[in-house]
Amino acid sequence: MMAQYLEIKAQYRDALLFYRMGDFYELFFDDAVAAAAALDIALTRRGKHQGDDIPMCGVPVHSAEGYLLTLIRRGFRVAIAEQMENPAEARKRGSKSVVARDVVRLVTPGTLTEESLLDARRHNYLAAYTEVREAGALAWCDMSTGELRVMACDRARLGPELARLMPRELLVPEPLETDLRPLSEELGAALTASARASFDSQSAEGRLCTLYGVGTLEGFGSFSRAELGALGGLVAYLDLTQRGNLPLLRPPVREAAAQVMLIDAATRRNLELTAALAGGREGSLLAAIDTTVTAAGARLLERRLSSPSCVLGEIHARQAAVGLLHQEASLRAELRRALRQVPDMDRALSRLALERGGPRDLAAIRDGLAQAGQIAGLLDPQELPEHLQQATRALGGHDPLLEALDAALVADPPLLARDGGFIAPGHDADLDEARRLRDEGRSVIAGMQADYARQTGITALKIKHNNVLGYFIETTATHAEKMLAPPLSETFIHRQTTANQLRFTTVELSEMETRILNAGAHALELEKQLFDGLRRAVLEAAGIVSACARALAEIDLAAGFAELAASGDWCAPRVDDSRAFDIQAGRHPVVEAALRRAGDSFVANDCTLSPADTDGAAIRLLTGPNMAGKSTFLRQNALIAVLAQAGAFVPAQQAHIGLVSQVFSRVGASDDLARGRSTFMVEMVETAAILNQADARALVILDEIGRGTATWDGLSIAWAVLEHLHDINRCRALFATHYHEMTGLAARLRGVENATVAVREWEGEVIFLHEVRTGAADRSYGVQVARLAGLPEAAVTRAREILTALESGEREGARNPVALIDELPLFAARPAPAPQSPAPKADPVAERLAAVHPDDLSPRDALALLYELKALSRPPSDP
């Protein structure tokens, strides 16, 4: 056996080998050591190899999926070796013959299909990248749904595209492994290098034609050699990992780079599109706006949010669908009620194609098609926009399959086909007969037990069953002499003695056992045959089933966007081919949702970035203190552009957005210690990417450029970046800064306008109004913010002294402000003042309350007093 294990393991050196032994998958040698540590299970020993103990661990077959998920998340690949025959068949070759085993599947992060291993609301992409001469191409698929796409993609665009897709695994030819490993690690994708021959475009074309059963790929589109190579490498890897049992892949769809908004990895991270900065889905834009009610709809939402369209026709069609369902509240509610009952047909179909599906997957197809029929009945194609018309048409055409599944399956089938009981009574006459015999046999056993009890006079006599003896008669040891003595010994044949019982059989019982066992096995075999027939029927109709699943996802997403717009008072944006950007009363969807949960309201703000010149820039230079809401304002406008081109309504009173080709964001401070990059270096790398890539249709948001270095260096860099955006990139941009010196650029550069986030001082406190207004901030309020953050009062007082000296020196033209500070007494030289309570301020509210006697107040007087106290506590109104 160990020789067989080592032979199989030699073929899969880079994977853990799950070696099937009965009801367990066993691991040996280094695999066992690694798996035991990763899974936190016991490490034992089994035999010796070359004089050393063989480490071993194992996991039960019935619960292997949970262990697989843990191993995959920890970066392992797992080869699953199954028994290809039963022990009885092996013994026919000789008493010492080993059961034949072979790897049936290689489990990797990008090839998961099991429901328990996947997030139902997220795609699980496997991507492949290759280059042919100077041209590159990226192909990707979700094996669990059958989606397959490809696009031309050079090395410069690869990072943003992978950030859009977030594949779990990336395939590359071996020569590119070293170059692309840092990128895959940055994105958290497992990198798999394959032989260069797997990406050969000529053999790839033949491989794809064989997969789809066609003589040419021209019917699917025109593909470059690099695109064919990427597709071929991906299909070759699927063939390898699935051991020839390829998934049900839809024909490849070719994407053009210009069709989707370019958003690089740093921008996605800063905007928290699908994941929060802290990690996880909670706190992201995706989590805040996900009102879909089906798994397929949720995956479509993530795809649209990650890939906003740049095709005006698509955007307008999606908005029209949302607009209709936004107006028709009752129709929207009915659709969402029906959609909640739709199972995940795409993934059920994929499991059935890979022969990993069960009766519940057939039931998912049946229930999904039935719900599709109900939903189609709610929609009148004549009154729908084209986007919904297309979806509605795809909901029909599956009546024969639905009728077959409905007639064959019970309402709630078991998970596994081997459990039986999933075919409805009356569907198959042979199965009904086998079941009758099986079930009547059980009642006969009960009757035989009663007969034997009467015959022997032993009321405690029982007929039981186990996998070793089959059916047997069991009685206590106290009745042993009676059962072993004539005349009972002539009927009851002794089989086994245990500590407290004796076990017997009879000729009659053995014959009945044979009948019962044959009937049960025959019934199960018949059910498996019927399951295979239903599975084939589903796969033959895979095209219309898949189209129906996609149509239901489209309807779910449109209804979800409409529900979001109705509940959040969002508006339909006007998206056109101009370069306008005019948002009235815009809000940040994530922050607004958080404030709403806390019972607070969001302060909406306008944003106008429409260029004064046809081909000129439009930049708002935003000043104001920290904590005033600058970053929120920057991010909300970028998110509004993303939502608009994803086909959704937007959180604003009104929005006019000229098509945005790229969104770039440089907001927040972080370092990259793994690559030896400081916070400032990361900031400069991201800023360089923006200046080198942003085109005239880009939307750029920048926050505090240059703050990570010396003041004059930082100001110089920020100044140069702003001029470059204005003169070279000529894009639309929001530029937040603390360098007030830059506000003078608004007078020099035609496309620059100053804006500030308003604050108000009242009784020494800073009140943040969160209002963006035209003009420049007169000061930064940094010392006040530091006080709010909890700096000791002594430090705050000292900061005020230094600030006063510096400002005085600047007004007087001092060349060396530090010399002015030297004239102040040193902070450490002064004895620390004893803590003193600040002088109490006159509090009109407290004084008024002191004069009130509650027992003397009528309800009307109490209400009047409340209004009076509220007026006394209100700060002076902002001018």
Automatic annotation (TrEMBL):
Residues covered by the DNA mismatch repair proteins mutS family domain: 698-714
Family: Belongs to the DNA mismatch repair MutS family.
Binding site for ATP: G624, P625, N626, M627, A628, G629, K630, S631
Cellular component per GO, a single term: cytosol
The protein's role, per its UniProt record: This protein is involved in the repair of mismatches in DNA. It is possible that it carries out the mismatch recognition step. This protein has a weak ATPase activity.
Keyword Ribonucleoprotein (UniProt): no
Organism: Rhabdonatronobacter sediminivivens
Cited InterPro entries: DNA_mismatch_repair_MutS, DNA_mismatch_repair_MutS-lik_N, DNA_mismatch_repair_MutS/MSH, DNA_mismatch_repair_MutS_C, DNA_mismatch_repair_MutS_clamp, DNA_mismatch_repair_MutS_core, DNA_mismatch_repair_MutS_N, DNA_mismatch_repair_MutS_sf
GO molecular function terms noted in the UniProt entry: ATP binding; ATP-dependent DNA damage sensor activity; damaged DNA binding; mismatched DNA binding
PROSITE patterns in UniProt: DNA_MISMATCH_REPAIR_2 (PS00486)
An individual GO BP term: mismatch repair
Alphabetized UniProt keyword annotations: ATP-binding, DNA damage, DNA repair, DNA-binding, Nucleotide-binding
UniProt protein name: DNA mismatch repair protein MutS
Pfam families: MutS_I (PF01624), MutS_II (PF05188), MutS_III (PF05192), MutS_IV (PF05190), MutS_V (PF00488)
Cross-referenced PANTHER family: DNA MISMATCH REPAIR PROTEIN MSH1, MITOCHONDRIAL (PTHR11361:SF34), DNA MISMATCH REPAIR PROTEIN MUTS FAMILY MEMBER (PTHR11361)
UniProt keyword ATP-binding, yes or no: yes
